[in-house]
Amino acid sequence: MSEIKTIALLGQPNSGKSTLFNNLTGLHQRVGNWPGKTVEQAEGEFVFDGTIYKVIDLPGSYGLSANSEEEVVTRDYIQSGKADLVCILVDASQLERSLYMLADFVGIRLPVMLVLNMMDVAEAAGKKIDVAAIEKRLGVPVLGFSAAETERYPEFFKKMVSAIKTPVCLDSGSLREELVSGGELGEKTDDIISRIEAALGDFEYGVCERIWIAEKLLEKDKLICGIVNESLPFARKNAIDAILDSDEGRDGGILTGEAKYRWVSKIVRESATPKSIEKVFSKWDRIATHHIKGKFFAFGIMVVSLIACMILAFPGMGIGFGMQPVLQSLVERAGNALGVWPVVISFINLVLVGGTCITICMTSFIFAIIFVFRILEEIGYMARFSYAFDNWLSRLGLQGKAIMPLFSGIGCTAGAVCGTRVLDTRGQRLLALVLLWAIPCGSKVAVVLFLASTFFGSAAPLFGIGYVALIFASFYLSSRLFGKKLVPQNERVGMIMELPPYHKPHWKMIAAMVGRSTWGIFKKALKMILMVAALFWALSYAGDGNVENTLLYKIGNAIEPVTMFFGMRWELFVSYLGGMFSKEASLGIMSTLFNHTGEAFSLVTRVAASENLGEALASTISKPEALAFLFASMFNVPCVLAMGTTYREAGSFKWLATIMGYYLALSLGLAFIGYHIGLLIF
Amino acid sequence: MKNAEFVDRLSLAEMGENRCGTVAQIEGDSRFISRIVSIGLTPGSAFTLLKNDGRSPVLVFCRDTVIAVNHKESSQIFVKVES
A635 exposed, middle or buried (CB, 10 Å; 0-12, 13-18, 19+)? Predict the structure, then answer.
């Protein structure tokens, strides 16, 4: 059996960790949750020279303080000592700041390799970095790298293999000197670090050296304070508390931070030239960060992105929609010629062919959104979105970045769901998912407007306005209901983030990554859509084509007393359920049931809202019922693919069920209110 | 930097655009300190204030990085402004 080595990737957000992880592991990766946490865990493998390397992509964090759930996960994993090598990634274009992570790692006895990522960006900004000098100073392997350039990977493998063969840990001596000297804070510190060390005695914790524990105590790290409290005898514990409570102890976090940066500066200032400020904050950025112009600019970018998405999605949509009638008639002719039972032909056409075609259509929009988002993130614009919209979205408990997935929800909910990945914490992602489901995609808007104009004619625009108001009201409700749990108040610090420099996108890598995720989504979506389509087909198939002989008709009639409670007769309720599959399916079912077109029920046949359907609906359905159905359609579950991608992003069935349950309750609740108000008015 | 004359001591939120300064003092709970320190603002660090419109997050250039700090919280960071 081959040897297995574990490599943990550690780095700040935007350090290029996920790019490295994806390029190393390719398709051999799993994304799940850390046990008992709402934090995403990405794990993968690759084989090099006969050895299996397990790669753990730790959640991005700025340092090793345990403040957020992500940071706790990262810290716990590091402290578990499971990694054979910790690969620390820093952004070479922002070397001094991002090396803080390395400084925070000093005092942890695990083999380390430092990767100065994005060397290409640093060089483009006119920055020169002497990698060999840094390596010599630190005494651990250091690699100048660019994770997005696939041709540079042999260098990575070479360094990695030697780092594992001869493992070296960081030496804490030089950082300790900085901590003791106190630097700018000078005498004020009163050698507090040595006093804590003395009080700690020979106490060590796993891979953590005494000096590291002393730092974290000064930083009031809750986990470390707890451990020390439990493990030390009373007298020594008191001694430490007294030191931490003293004047200099209270400023401990500043003392250690300052010392760490001093340590970093000494490394960097000897081995790298700084970049010029003009290149950092361009004229573009002056506009992009302006409090009014910046928002207009961002809206402009969003509109352009949405158009780009539609253009990118167009070929896939064309293939999907174009193929369906061609294939279906082919199957029908071939089937008839061969004398195949009609039930088989119906199954092939309405489940297999229809399902595959609709999956192609739906996935093509997802592909487009992932692609465009990836580019925006890669070139560094995503952070500017955050900046421009932070004030607005922080009221809902979200970051400014969330504006992008929320806005693209207008194009396609399922794709926008994938876009929530740009958010930093899982809590934020889940909250954005909840809000996102309320935003109507193009198809939903079309259905709602069709219904409103069919039943209420010239009053339809009022429904449009009412709908927008209801969406914002639902945002408020959702953020009240879910916000506190998902994004706890104490994690809602105001925006403190870096605006990364603009990068040139690496097309090849983006295309490969987007292609891989789209293919993954397509496979899962296809399975799910075929299953749902098959189930619906079985319920709605009647040998003689008579609706009354279908299972659906029988079930629908049986539950009508219940659904009428919400103002929906069984035909409408079935259409509402079909709307969970896709908005087109909702129209298709209505036209089968109300138009008596004689067509079989189908989720996959594309039916445009026709004049005939409008007339048929208006003549059969009363105004209160119409109101109920309209409200139910507004907040109905977006579509089957949105459910699928939500499941994938949330990483738990429980959360998908929660969000679905919430929207079912919301839409049926509104239907109920609408129906009963309608009964009073009309 | 050591020889520069400092004429004023005020918070980041009150500082004018395109001026240079150094961080003098940071106030706040350990959580805030940990966040602000890990992004690169510590006492003694020199920076240039790129943008401060009185409402949007303040933008400073410090340690090779453009850093955005929420306007409200930037008033907890005290600075010495170079003349």
Answer: buried
Q: Which CATH architecture has domain A173-273?
A: Orthogonal Bundle (1.10)
- The model's pLDDT over A230-241, given as tens digits with 9 standing for 90+, comes to 888 888 888 899
Comparing CB atoms, the residue among B42, B59, B65 nearest residue A289 is: B59
B1 band by pLDDT with thresholds 50, 70 and 90? very low
pTM: 0.83
The secondary structure of A37-65 as a DSSP string is SSSEEEEEEEEETTEEEEEEEPPP-SSS-
Q: How far is CA A380 from the centre of its chain?
A: 17
A4-165 under CATH 3.30.450.40, yes or no: no
Using CA atoms, how far apart are residues A58 and A36, in angstroms rounded to an integer?
16
Q: Of A270 and A394, which is predicted with more confidence? A: A394
Min Cα separation A185/chain B (Å)? 8
In chain B, domain spans: 6-82
Of A97, A183, A220, the CB nearest to B65: A97
Question: What are the structural domain ranges in chain A?
Answer: 4-165, 173-273, 510-681
- Residue A112 tokens, joined: 């380390």
CA nearest neighbour of A92 among A160, A23, A16, A19: A16
Distance in angstroms (rounded) separating the CA atoms of residues B22 and B2: 10
pLDDT for A14-27, tens place per residue? 888 888 998 898 87
Q: Does A390 touch chain B (CB under 8 A)?
A: yes
CATH class given for the domain over B6-82: mainly beta
d(CA A241, CA A204): 18
| pLDDT greater at residue A424 or residue A340 | A340
B44-52 average pLDDT score: 91
Q: How far is A380 from chain B (nearest CA, A)?
A: 12
**Mind listing the pLDDT tens digit for each residue in A330-372?**
998 999 899 888 889 889 988 899 899 989 988 998 899 889 9
ipTM value: 0.87
| Nearest C-alpha neighbor of B34 from the set A426, A152, A610, A71 | A71
